[in-house]
Each structure stands twice: as C-alpha cells, then as structure tokens.
Design brief:
The protein is an alpha+beta fold. The protein folds into 3 domains: about 10-65, Structural Genomics Hypothetical 15.5 Kd Protein In mrcA-pckA Intergenic Region, Chain A, CATH 3.10.290; about 80-155, Pseudouridine synthase (2-Layer Sandwich); about 160-300, Pseudouridine synthase (2-Layer Sandwich). Helices cover about 20% and strands about 35% of the residues. The chain is built from 7 helices and 17 strands. It has helices spanning about 20-25, 30-40, 110-120, 150-155, 160, 235-240, 295, and strands at about 10, 15, 45, 50, 55, 60-65, 80-85, 90-95, 130, 140-145, 160-170, 180-190, 195-200, 205-215, 220-225, 270-275, 285-290. Strand 9 and strand 10 (about 140-145) form a beta hairpin.
Length: about 300
C-alpha cells in the first residue's frame, strides 16, 4: 500500500516574507530546498498556491506545505496563469486566442481547451468552466471556475460580484472631453455578428462606459475605460460611436490600408484590471496587468 505524504500546516503570528518564515520552521532546509517546494507548487497560502519566495505573510494567515508535488505548471505562449486556488483560475490571454470554440466540433486551440488540459493533468476528472469572454483580438484578464455550480452563480450575479473592470485602449484622434460617460443602447445583428448603437432606447440593451484620457499625441489617445455594463463589443462600438475607434479595429473602425507602420498591428484593447468578490470566501480578489508595451511605444517615437 502507498501512503500519501502528509501536509504540514503553519500559522503566521507576525508579518514577514515567505522564505524566512519557512526556513525558520523547516529545520535543516536550505533556500534551494524551499524554492524547490515552491516551483513544484507544494506551498499554499490561505488555500491558494504560491510560487514566489518573497510573498508577504500577514498575522492570521495559514501556510500549508503539501507532501506531494502539485500539477504541472501552465506553460503556453498565449496564456499566462495569474492566480489559482481550489475554486478559480485567473489568466491573462494574449491577442489572437479565442476564449472558447466558435463551434463545438472545432479543433482550434482556445483559452478553454488549454486550461481544460491543464487541470486534467492534475486529475482526469477535473474540469473548467467559462464565466465571461474576451474577443479573439482583445488581450487581458479572464476568469474561469472549477465547478458548474460556481459558474452558474458567477454568471447570474456577475454585475453584483464584479467591483472593478478596467480596460485600456489606444484610439484614433483625441476625444473632445478629457473624461466622459458614454451611454447608448446596443443591438446585435446575429446575421453578421455586428453590434449597432443607438443614442435613444430603441429596445436594445443599455450600455454604459466611463473613459478618461491617460495620454495623447497629435493622432492617438491612450484611454482608461471602466465598464458599468458588459455588452458584446461594448467598448469598440462606443468608441466608434463618438468618432474615435480603437486602433486596429477592422470591424467598427476602418481598414488597415495606409496605416502608419509605427502603430501596433493589432486591436489595441486590453482588459487590465479585474476585481470581484469571491462568493466562496466573501473576500475581494484584485488582479492587474501592465499596459501592453506596444500601446505605449507610439508615444515615444
């Protein structure tokens, strides 16, 4: 009979970094040994796998050292693991990657298929569930969950659970106002998958976007955008509706012909900040990613 190695639980009584904390409690272990535990995903802080030796611990935290190695590290050029615990996986998606397949029989690699394979390497019965989506050409933060029950709850109460959704976008021209709120009603034409905007209630779904200018040149502006609603293509449609389409938006902006080679060759929209209330613990989870470098490069030429 094979006996499972026991987990070891430690309680934090003073604020300090993870490395000295574990060195003091694991007599004889070297820094290299501790880093090995971290790299093999054997250390959890309050139920969340941690891999950084300089993670800051607080009074009341619980650190668990697992006796068995964790699942294989997620490695994919278009998907970066930001956070994982027993309930959630938060990733940063690169442009060009679909969130989910367009058709059920599609063999195309998606964020969903990558994560499904990832969790099943840990156990063949594990599964992953989609909470929301990003367009193929939009980069940034995505939330997935590990149970269907949590997926249903997150989708039902998404607007109440999410406390912050911040995007950055590079847009054509300079908006007249440094900051403003755009409110229109959006209707999607299923035949051509295009969303239309109306300044008055025409029976569509109300959509509200707040924006402010972060910086601008003579031709382009970098905007920070906060979503009050999360409609399909909302930011892209809203920016086009005020005459400042997102750079690289061939659907709602203009064709790429004649575009300056110094501009990014992509849809310049990125989901930068996501904050929501964890329904399981009722704690707030906050995640941020940097502004893509190619969005900033145009201002330094």
């Amino acid at each position: 009979m094979v006996h499972k190695k026991q987990d070891t639980e430690f309680h934090v009584n003073a604020e300090e970094e993870l490395m000295p904390f574990l060195l003091a409690r694991m007599g004889g272990k070297t820094r290299t040994g501790i880093k090995s535990f971290l790299s093999h995903r054997q250390v959890k802080l309050n139920g969340t796998i941690v891999t950084r030796h300089d993670t800051l611990l607080h009074v009341g935290d619980t650190v668990i050292l697992s006796g068995t190695k964790g699942n294989i590290e997620l490695r994919h050029p278009k998907l970066r693991l930001v956070y994982e615990d027993d309930h959630f996986i938060i990733v940063e998606k690169s442009r060009g990657l679909l969130t989910v397949p367009v058709r059920q029989d599609s063999k195309e690699t998606t964020a969903y298929s990558i994560l499904k394979a990832y969790v099943r390497r840990q156990h063949p019965r594990n599964n992953i569930y989609v909470v929301h989506r990003l367009d193929r050409e939009t980069s940034g933060l995505l939330v997935f969950v590990k149970t269907q029950q949590l997926q249903e709850y997150m989708r039902t109460y998404w607007r109440q659970i999410v406390t912050t959704r911040t995007y950055v976008a590079l847009v054509e021209g300079i908006p007249e106002k440094d900051e403003d709120t755009i409110t229109t009603w959006l209707t999607e034409d299923k035949r051509n998958a295009v969303v239309y905007s109306s300044p008055v209630d025409d029976g569509g779904d109300i959509a509200i976007t707040h924006y402010k200018i972060v910086k601008h040149s003579d031709e382009l502006s970098l905007l920070e955008l906060h979503l009050e609603t999360g409609r399909t293509n909302q930011i892209r449609v809203h920016m086009a509706s005020i005459g400042h389409p997102v750079v690289g938006d061939r659907k709602y902006g203009h064709a790429a012909e004649g575009q300056s080679p110094s501009r990014p060759d992509r849809l310049c929209l990125h989901a930068r900040v996501l904050e929501f209330i964890n329904p399981v613990t009722e704690q707030t989870l906050h995640f941020e990613t940097p502004v893509p470098r190619d969005f900033l490069r145009v201002f330094h030429q």
